[in-house]
Amino acid sequence: MQRRRFLRSALTAALATATASLLRPGRADALGGELPTLDGPAPDFRLAGVAPAAPAARGGQAAAAVATELALEDFAGRWLVLYFYPRDFTGGCTLEARGFQKDLEAFHRSGAEVVGVSADDPDSHASFCSEEGLAFPLLSDPGGQVSRRYGSWIAPFSQRHTFLIDPEGMLRARWVAVRPTGHSGEVLAELVRLQAS
């Protein structure tokens, strides 16, 4: 009888805590933690990674990845699709990257850049870019510092979340627990919708 009473009180306390958390204004949670607020400033970042070489240096061949360091401020005046993913070369992450690559010119025509973030090191990113022919930057967040700011971290991996940031650095849309197939088209459609409104 005491055990049942203890379990009932523990369950009641857990439900009360969860309900209070969900009802807290401005707070949104995902599996990876607290998400940044929509229509608020996007969390700042500065990460090392790789980016494709300039088109003139490619000579018409597959893009060679070169070392880079990028920050949110580097995208001022442009839209930014910042997507977090678990790991290079895995099935879902490869599908997602291929989707963004397929739609990359459409994103560029809409004034948007695409940047991927995972815990993989720059060497892994360079191999992934080369093997998949990716022409957008991949940044390395091995300790999850930036992923945590975006509510996208469960050690040791970034979670599959995407954020759409406007030219003023404001977060305008987000997707959590992304399904890789067709996701790029979904983000592109929302970008076009937001630009038209």
Explained architecture:
It is a single chain. This protein is an alpha+beta fold. It has one domain: Glutaredoxin, CATH 3.40.30. It has seven helices and eleven strands. A seven-stranded mixed sheet has the order 4-3-7-6-5-10-11. It has a two-stranded antiparallel ribbon with strand order 1-2. A two-stranded antiparallel sheet has the order 8-9. Strand 8 (153-154) and strand 9 form a beta hairpin. It is globular. The N and C termini lie far apart (60 Å).
Helix and strand arrangement:
Elements: H1 2-23, E1 28-30, E2 33-35, E3 46-52, H2 55-58, E4 65-71, E5 79-84, H3 91-102, H4 104-109, E6 112-118, H5 122-132, E7 138-140, H6 145-149, E8 153-154, E9 157-158, E10 161-165, E11 171-175, H7 183-196
Parallel strand pairs: 5-6, 6-7
Antiparallel strand pairs: 1-2, 3-4, 3-7, 5-10, 8-9, 10-11
Q: What is the CATH superfamily label? A: Glutaredoxin
- The name of the CATH architecture is 3-Layer(aba) Sandwich
Distance between the termini: 60 Å
Structural class: alpha+beta
Q: What is the third-level CATH name, the topology?
A: Glutaredoxin
3D shape: globular
Please work out how many helical segments DSSP would assign.
Answer: 7
Largest sheet: 7 strands, mixed
Proportion of beta-strand residues: 25-35%
* Strand count: 11
Q: How many domains in all? A: 1
